[in-house]
């Protein structure tokens, strides 16, 4: 509302770095063309408190009206008309305008914060649904500033648009007053329109570039600190404090330089933005004095015209500043817009993935296995298929985004209610196979499916056709799996919270059998405060074996039908690992176990063994059978 010659940054706006994130690559010109479209798409999917912005807009209109009226009082005052009515009117309108400015400031600040909160929810919901393959390609830390910083521009851009609209209105009113006072002199000023347009476009471009660079700088810095702080123990262990200091300096420098650039743009843009006012004042002095000499304008004409022109210029400047602010917001919001344009997984029924990002941002509650689908029209197979049975891997090939072929033409049936062990050398594709079974990745070609593993009326098993896993809602599918990796992540919180992670938060071991079992597997009484033992971020206050035990407990806590164990007891002492495995084996009526291991004794006691070699199946069958056919297994189990 008050005129400044420059757009200001939203509260804590900042930006990473131009690194090879994959985001933002591509044909630059096409990108620039798509920028407005992407910008508007972001707003189409965002919940915006329009009523607040409407109030702010109305206040802006009234303010614009009053401003024009104030100028008519001030002209009379300047001309020495000092009647009480004029003085009181002038004071009342000026005070009224200040109150309106305060009200509009408060309304737009509130609207801006609500918009930013909604934008943050939207982007976070979207990041959570990005396929793992995409996230791994970009590095998760590269998304941090997309949800913390970039979104702060969202509300800012709307406030600027509202202010721009009310300024356009006020400009129209002020211009009419000016035109009515003297059409000819106003006509001379129209010669300056090209100058105005030049300032408009130039300022916008400069602001876009500055805000984008500033945001990119913040993103680079945030990314660096997120990754390196999370791994501080390696920094110290590798005696890398000095190296890190230098690298940190470099990361900080990126943002520093972006800040300098922004400062430079600010410094340049202030005189540019006031240039129009200066030129128009000179024009009024030159043309106006000529007109006074020719008696086409009264002797006080320049004075009165300048007062009215002041109003016009104030609004024009406001229009330029707000346009620049919108362009700046476009640059700052680009990363959030990029995230919103990436493909997402459809997690469950009621979500429509790419087509409706707002649904993704405010997703329906996750459907648990066996729960009736709330959407009667949802795909039949997805809603009713039982997530159980034999796991069928049919001619599956998987290539990582960098082209590395981890699995090639793999065909397998992992039998229901058994313990299958997958063995093979480093890089053979074992972990990749587990991730495909869990649908953390989708096959490049081929199919993962489920087949009824129970005997049919004729006593034959596995006779039914496989239901493609891709036809089952992802949330139902994944809820049927428990996954324990070799390097599990421990969240900051209690042992109990870590065991119940992902189960909705209000389950306790006293009331829930799977959780009780999870606590048993984790050997919870061995922790000082049992379930209430506090764990640090990343599990820095527990041993590797203890962390793996917690992860095993977490894997069974959701009563899964499949347990995927990826070297899940490699750090657990031999005796405890054997007991855990026999506990798990004793419950094969509840779950099918698929285990990756480098421990020959665990393979020998399995029901079924798969040997992977260079991404292909070397042998599969009962341990004795595989020992006859696979050279790798013979060496491994010897
Ligand atoms: N995210 C990734 N991007 C690119 N290549 C990857 C990725 N993850 C794994 N690979 C590659 O895929 C191949 C199979 O990896 P995988 O982790 O499945 O092997 P593995 O059999 O589990 O090995 P290990 O016994 O060492 O754990 C390896 O060559 C590995 O380098």
Automatic annotation (TrEMBL):
SUPFAM superfamilies cross-referenced by the UniProt entry: ABC transporter transmembrane region (SSF90123), P-loop containing nucleoside triphosphate hydrolases (SSF52540)
In its keyword annotation, does this UniProt entry include Transmembrane?
yes
Which Enzyme Commission number(s) are on file for it?
3.6.3.44
Q: Where in the cell is it found?
A: Cell membrane
The enzyme class is: hydrolase
Fetch the PROSITE patterns from UniProt: ABC_TM1F, ABC_TRANSPORTER_1, ABC_TRANSPORTER_2
Domain ABC transporter: where? 391-637
Kindly give the InterPro entries that the UniProt entry links to this protein.
AAA+_ATPase, ABC1_TM_dom, ABC1_TM_sf, ABC_transporter-like_ATP-bd, ABC_transporter-like_CS, P-loop_NTPase, Type_1_exporter
- Residue ranges occupied by any ABC transmembrane type-1 domain in the UniProt entry: 54-328
Q: How does it sit in the membrane?
A: Multi-pass membrane protein
The regions listed as transmembrane in this protein's record are 50-70, 82-103, 153-176, 188-208, 264-287
Cite a GO CC annotation. plasma membrane
What molecular function terms (GO) are annotated for this protein?
A: ABC-type oligopeptide transporter activity; ATP binding; ATP hydrolysis activity
Do you know which Pfam families this protein is assigned to? ABC_membrane, ABC_tran
Q: Which UniProt keywords apply?
A: ATP-binding, Hydrolase, Membrane, Nucleotide-binding, Transmembrane, Transmembrane helix
Protein name as catalogued: Putative ABC transporter, permease/ATP-binding protein
Its lineage opens with: Bacteria, Bacillati, Actinomycetota, Actinomycetes, Bifidobacteriales
């Amino acid at each position: 509302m008050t005129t400044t010659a420059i757009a200001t940054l939203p509260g804590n706006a900042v930006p990473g770095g131009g690194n090879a994130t994959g985001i933002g690559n591509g044909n630059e010109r096409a990108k620039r063309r798509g920028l407005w479209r992407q910008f508007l798409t972001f707003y189409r999917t965002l919940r915006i408190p329009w009523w607040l912005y409407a109030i702010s807009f109305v206040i802006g209109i009234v303010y614009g009206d009053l401003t024009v009226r104030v100028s008519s009082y001030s002209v009379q005052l300047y001309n020495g008309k000092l009647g009480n009515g004029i003085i009181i009117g002038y004071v009342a309108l000026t005070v009224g305008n200040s109150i309106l400015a305060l009200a509009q400031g408060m309304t737009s600040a509130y609207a801006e914060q609500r918009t930013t909160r909604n934008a943050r929810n939207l982007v976070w919901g979207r990041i959570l649904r990005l396929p793992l393959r995409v996230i791994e390609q970009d590095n998760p830390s590269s998304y941090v500033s997309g949800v913390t910083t970039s979104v702060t521009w969202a509300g800012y851009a709307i406030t600027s648009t509202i202010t721009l609209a009310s300024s356009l209105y006020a400009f129209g009113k002020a211009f009419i007053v000016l035109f009515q006072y003297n059409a000819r002199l106003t006509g001379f000023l129209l010669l300056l329109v090209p100058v105005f347009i030049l300032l408009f476009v130039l300022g916008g471009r400069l602001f876009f570039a500055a805000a984008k660079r500033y945001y990119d700088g913040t993103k680079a810095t945030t990314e660096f600190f997120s990754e390196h702080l999370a791994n501080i123990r390696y920094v110290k262990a590798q005696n890398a404090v000095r190296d890190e200091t230098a690298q940190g300096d470099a990361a900080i420098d990126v943002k520093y330089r972006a800040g300098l650039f922004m400062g430079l743009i600010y410094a340049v843009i202030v005189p540019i933005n006031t240039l129009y006012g200066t030129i128009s004042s000179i024009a009024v002095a030159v043309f106006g004095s000529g007109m006074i000499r020719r008696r086409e304008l009264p002797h006080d004409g320049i004075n009165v015209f300048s007062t009215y022109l002041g109003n016009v210029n104030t609004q024009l400047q406001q229009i330029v500043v707000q346009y620049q602010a919108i362009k700046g917001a476009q640059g700052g919001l680009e990363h959030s817009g990029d995230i919103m344009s990436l493909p997402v997984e459809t997690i469950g029924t009621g979500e429509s993935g790419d087509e409706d990002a707002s649904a993704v941002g405010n997703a329906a509650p996750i459907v648990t296995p066996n729960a009736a689908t709330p959407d009667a029209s949802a795909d039949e197979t997805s809603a009713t298929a039982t997530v159980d049975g034999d796991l069928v891997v049919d001619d599956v090939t998987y290539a990582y985004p960098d082209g590395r072929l981890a699995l090639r033409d793999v065909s397998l049936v992992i039998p229901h209610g058994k313990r299958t062990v997958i063995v093979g050398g480093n890089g053979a594709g074992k972990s990749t196979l587990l991730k495909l079974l869990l649908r953390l990745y989708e096959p490049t070609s081929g199919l993962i499916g489920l087949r009824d593993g129970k005997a049919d009326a004729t006593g034959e098993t596995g006779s039914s056709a496989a239901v493609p896993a891709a036809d089952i809602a992802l949330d139902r599918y994944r809820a049927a799996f428990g996954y324990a990796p070799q390097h599990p992540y421990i969240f900051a919180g209690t042992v109990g919270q870590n065991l119940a992670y992902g189960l909705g938060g209000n389950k306790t071991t006293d009331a829930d059998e799977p959780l009780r079992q999870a606590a048993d597997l984790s050997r919870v009484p061995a922790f000082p405060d049992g379930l209430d033992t506090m764990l640090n971020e990343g599990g820095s206050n527990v041993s590797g074996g203890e962390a793996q035990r917690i992860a095993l407990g977490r894997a069974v806590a959701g009563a899964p039908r499949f347990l995927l164990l990826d070297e899940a007891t490699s750090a657990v002492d031999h005796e405890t690992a054997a007991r855990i495995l026999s506990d798990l084996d004793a419950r094969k009526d509840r779950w099918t176990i698929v285990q990756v291991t480098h421990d020959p004794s665990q393979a020998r006691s399995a029901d079924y063994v798969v040997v992977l070699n260079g991404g292909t199946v070397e042998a599969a069958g009962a341990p004795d059978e595989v020992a006859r056919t696979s050279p790798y297994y013979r060496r491994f189990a010897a």
